Amino acid sequence: MANESQRQKAWEYLLENPNIESNTLAAAIGMDKNMCRDTLRYWQERGWVEQVGGRGTTNDPMRFSTTLDAKPLWGGEARKGFSVKKHYKKNKRQMLWNNMKIERKFTAHSIVSSINVALPTAYDYIRTLVKAGYIELLPGSRRSRRLDTMKYRYLLVRDTGRLAPIARKNGCWDQNEQKLYPFETAEPKNRRSKRSSKEDLNHDLVG
After folding, report:
1. Which end of the chain is more exposed for a tag (fewer CB within 10 A), N or C?
2. 202, 195 Cβ separation under 8 angstroms
3. Is the entire prediction scored with pTM above 0.90?
4. What is the pLDDT of residue 194?
5. Domain extents for the chain?
6. CATH of 4-79, one of 3.20.20.70, 2.40.128.20, 1.10.150.110, 1.10.10.10
C-alpha cells in the first residue's frame, strides 16, 4: 500500500478530478501504478470511492470518483468504523433518489416515509439537487415563517437513470450520463417572475 503522504495526495487530486482512471491518477501525483490500484481498491471497499465508468479492460479502464461527503481519516483513526459510516451514507442517497423517481412530485417528508432516512439527510440532498437543476419547487407550495422544507413540494425534472447523482464541490456528478451538472447560479426566469423578491430570498435559504 502507498505511504500516508502519497494517499493524501491521491485523495486531494481525486477530489478535484473526478471520473479518473488509476494510471492517470498515478502519473499525475508520481505514485507507483500498482500502489495506486491497491489504494483505490482499499477506498472502494470502504465506500469512500466508487466506480463511475469503464469496464476494466485495456481500452476501457475503470474510472473512479469519491462518494458523497467522504472524508477519510489519516493515521491510526482511519480504520475505526469509518467504512461502515460512509457506505451507510451512500445507500441513503440512493434510496432518496429511488423514491423521488417513483413519486415524481414529492416533499421531504414523503420520500423518507417508507425508508430509514432522517429528514435532515433528505433536506441536504434536496438542496443539492435543486442547485444542480434536477428538481424544482412546484408552484403553490406551502410556505411558513420557519422555512420548513417539509412544507415544500418538488418536481423531479431531470431523471437521468437508476443511479443517484453524486454531490461535488461545484455541482452533481451524474453516474448515468457520465457528466457533471454544475450548480445553478441564478433561478430560471419563468419561476423567478412569479415570486416576490422576499419569497426568492426565503426559498434560497431553504433550497
Report:
1. N
2. no
3. no
4. 47
5. 4-79, 84-206
6. 1.10.10.10
Q: How far apart are CA 66 and CA 2, in angstroms?
A: 18
137 forms beta bridges with 154
SS (H, E, C) the chain: CCCHHHHHHHHHHHHHCCCEEHHHHHHHHCCCHHHHHHHHHHHHHCCCEEEEECCCCCCCCCEEEECCCCCCCCHHHHHCCHHHHHHHHHHHHHHHHHHHHHHCEECHHHHHCCCCCCHHHHHHHHHHHHHCCCEEECCCCCCCCCCCHHHCCEEECCCCCCCCCEECCCEEEECCCCEEEECCCCCCHHHHCCCCHHHHHHHHHHC
User: Which architecture does CATH list for 84-206?
Assistant: Orthogonal Bundle (1.10)
pLDDT tens, residue by residue, 1-52? 457 788 888 888 888 888 889 999 999 999 999 999 888 888 887 778 888 8
pLDDT of residue 142: 60
